[in-house]
């Protein structure tokens, strides 16, 4: 394929376009009868099981998707990523989050330099620092141990670490290591978030980690200044050196802010914000909470998937299969949304993290060459843990719109409960739902079945389930730090696969800029109106009216 051609102009895409019409005529009930097909759609790797037999796809579909991958030069693009080529062309950067979890003796090059020693230099520094804080040899300005950490950051400097933190909170080994410690995340510039985060904390025993790749993000910098003042007001400005550290690629601005460069933890421009959880962005706060050795296992889990993704043939490659199936669902079956449904409360922050990873990466309107896409890329991700989601939006998923679902289950729970007299454990109860829902979606319930159950005629349309709703099931052996790392990397790479096939740049995010610059104009106006009483000017009628009303209300 010539580099400027769209993937939709290729023969494999056109072939899939006609093939999808046949698939649409075949109900999943029929597809599921073919045991050979089902067997071929189960993939195992390192304790993980992926079953995608409930996708509206035949073995023929898969063959055609592999041809599409070839036309998109998927393998070549993956290799370019691992080779440190500047695949993020609009920012002229490599995309090397895989280097963040590479083994110490690995070699991964960016701009002619092996970046792995730099990665490990920072990891070693984190290890040493977090051990000092956790052991109490690094104390606050008043001599007290720093038991609490507030990580200040937003977007990619927040969502990934929050997901991992939530996932490990109830994991026995991690929970034991975290005894007596608290980790909180301050993201929103809303002062309510500040209040919620500092409630119950004392500046004397709190360490603030300011996390920002650019160290310019308005929300993070204001929140950082707010917490700096909180510490200063309580124990004096000299306390900042002991109570505030930073994670950034911009060490000059870190120093300007007043944080000792010795207490700054670097990362690099080849790490995208939403792909940065395995850098100091996540590793520092998470190691403060759980200890470095637990977080190292998380990195190892992600690394195992990096190897799998790079070296496994596409037919058995979990991120590749997931990515191709997403393209199939979005671009051919016409289902633009996806529900992420982990059957584990520990994964409650997984969907919010993947929302950013997926939608900020693939929510693009032009090809990597800047040409308007003749098809829609990206997908709308949302989700909730089961079974909570079942009592919320599953009605729509079962009888309303078709939304392909990712069911994520865990074989062994972090927190087993066996009640006396109950024949199934609490986890079995949860997992009964995990196993049942995909079949309910795939098979549905026919009017004939309802008639056989003597359902009143007038209720039959209401109680009918059309079925034929695609899902996939991903089973993790357990949910320890290693497995959490595996899950993270699977989804990161899946998103990249989608972007590579659609021919977009999944690693820039220009779409967040316009809102930021308009907010800065509003901020200027608020400042002028509040300090000099100037009236609102230069905005359209609607915004002028809203701003004026806001300014007239009691200031706050
Ligand atoms: O939302 C836009 C964005 O640039 C994200 O890509 C990024 O993760 C977030 O803002 C935070 O940026 P920073 O880490 O530079 O503060």
From TrEMBL:
<dbReference type="GO" id="GO:0006094">
    <property type="term" value="P:gluconeogenesis"/>
</dbReference>
<dbReference type="GO" id="GO:0006096">
    <property type="term" value="P:glycolytic process"/>
</dbReference>
<dbReference type="GO" id="GO:0051156">
    <property type="term" value="P:glucose 6-phosphate metabolic process"/>
</dbReference>
<comment type="pathway">
    <text>Carbohydrate degradation; glycolysis; D-glyceraldehyde 3-phosphate and glycerone phosphate from D-glucose: step 2/4.</text>
</comment>
<dbReference type="GO" id="GO:0005829">
    <property type="term" value="C:cytosol"/>
</dbReference>
<keyword id="KW-0324">Glycolysis</keyword>
<dbReference type="InterPro" id="IPR046348">
    <property type="entry name" value="SIS_dom_sf"/>
</dbReference>
<comment type="similarity">
    <text>Belongs to the GPI family.</text>
</comment>
<dbReference type="InterPro" id="IPR035476">
    <property type="entry name" value="SIS_PGI_1"/>
</dbReference>
<keyword id="KW-0963">Cytoplasm</keyword>
<dbReference type="GO" id="GO:0097367">
    <property type="term" value="F:carbohydrate derivative binding"/>
</dbReference>
<dbReference type="InterPro" id="IPR023096">
    <property type="entry name" value="G6P_Isomerase_C"/>
</dbReference>
<dbReference type="InterPro" id="IPR018189">
    <property type="entry name" value="Phosphoglucose_isomerase_CS"/>
</dbReference>
<keyword id="KW-0413">Isomerase</keyword>
<dbReference type="InterPro" id="IPR035482">
    <property type="entry name" value="SIS_PGI_2"/>
</dbReference>
<dbReference type="GO" id="GO:0048029">
    <property type="term" value="F:monosaccharide binding"/>
</dbReference>
<keyword id="KW-0312">Gluconeogenesis</keyword>
<protein>
    <recommendedName>
        <fullName>Glucose-6-phosphate isomerase</fullName>
        <ecNumber>5.3.1.9</ecNumber>
    </recommendedName>
</protein>
<dbReference type="GO" id="GO:0004347">
    <property type="term" value="F:glucose-6-phosphate isomerase activity"/>
</dbReference>
<dbReference type="InterPro" id="IPR001672">
    <property type="entry name" value="G6P_Isomerase"/>
</dbReference>
<comment type="subunit">
    <text>Homodimer.</text>
</comment>
<dbReference type="Pfam" id="PF00342">
    <property type="entry name" value="PGI"/>
</dbReference>
